[in-house]
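This section describes the prediction task in plain terms. A model, or a person checking by hand, is given the sequence of a single protein chain and must write out its three-dimensional structure as a string of tokens. No templates, partner chains or ligands are provided. The sample shown here is typical of the held-out split.
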Amino acid sequence: MALPLKYHTRYLLVHRATTLLTVLVVAVVVGTFTWMSGFAAALGETLSVAGDPQKMVVVRRGSESEFNSALSMEDFNRLRQLEEIARDPETGEQLLSGEMLVQLQLPRRSDGGKTLANVAVRGLREVGAKVHRDVKIAGRFPGAGQREVIVGAAAARQFVGLEVGKSIALGYGGDRAFQIVGIFTAEGGPLESEIWGNVDTLMNAYNRNGYSSANLLFSTSVDAKALAARLEGPQIQLSGFTESEYWQKQAANIRVYLGFAYALVAFMFAAAVFAIANTMYATVAGRTREIAMLRTIGFRPPHILAGFLLESVLLCLLGGILGCLLCQAWLSMGGAMKDMYGATTFSTLAFVIRLTPMTVLFALLSVCIIGVLGAIFPARRAARIEVVTALRQT
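The expected answer:
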């Protein structure tokens, strides 16, 4: 017969101090783990959106990003000769967008504007909204010759002063006011972290006479690798990356950060297993005569083993639930909106961390594993106690 659950829950309630300490250790581990899992999931979701299989980012040969690239008008005109570029089915216009990028420092909302971050400002024409075809604009596209911009939804959530109707200071000396005339979404992708304006107006404001990059859509029959090889060839001498390749490069430093963070979580998991094992060894040592009495009234070693494993899992589940609640409370109090710098752009990628049901389920399953690993050896020791020897102990 199995040990009743009431027996183990009563023991945990009686020994409140030990129970509370163990629960808190597990809660800290699970809270950290769920936050990091949500962080990685949010970042991965944001980058996965930027994966249009027909879009290519073209930069100067040797450049790692649009920000350290420069394309002359001659470079752009050579791109126009590519027959692989798709055309708008309604107008017949080439889906090729010459774009200019600069950065603007803005205060973060999350800390009340105490810290600043670099936000990308992209200049492009209306054809660019067709090339970046996951973009949807609420409002209107900035007019040619007008000092107007539209703001990505993620940037509007993360930074101060990006509401429609307000103005932001742009230009080489920051002396030109551009009015915000709309908000755009990009299905949660990295473009939502940017500010867009008319390229000609922005080039004039920043004294530029060339593009930073070009974005294009190529026909479905075109092989992306073959097109990239042609761009690298002697006739064009530029570098092209599919959208997915480009954004994965920009996220390289973020993946390193996640690697260190998960190493820390692994260390904390090991510490939690040690804490559980220490608690359970102490429990077994203090209940030797009690365990012997259970054996004499008919409980077999497998029942003792299963009972102590169950007790450990209960402890860990309590800590796991508390950790998830603490993580959700932290996110609700303003910790959900985050931004990270790209590897070579030094402009921010904003995203929202969410505690999803799958994250919670995975965290609780993981904490059950902690409970089993921490208790398996103490539980085996309890199951092997010699009844007669234990009953003789005072």
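For orientation: The mean pLDDT is 83.
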